[in-house]
Amino acid sequence: MNGVLQVTGRLGKSTHLFNFEKHPIVFPSKAKLTGLLIWESHQIVFHSGSQVIAPLPDIRAEQSTPFTIIIVDFAGPLFVKDNNAKQYI
Question: Smallest Cα–Cα separation from 69: which of 56, 78, 81, 80?
Fold first, then answer.
């Protein structure tokens, strides 16, 4: 599009996205259109406010030296038989 600033990056080579998703438009921060687009989005999500998330477990909020406690929270549940052998994820 002529006269419109668009971002280009690694998504430009994607084959499953539309052109406007690959190269989003950059709006000037002080332009009236920018303010109107932000206001419209704000109205659509009903003033959503902050996201509600669960509190951290006490052990995750304690002060300690680095690597004293390491928690892997992305591996999912593991079921290990106690047979004194190495276990792998």
Answer: 56
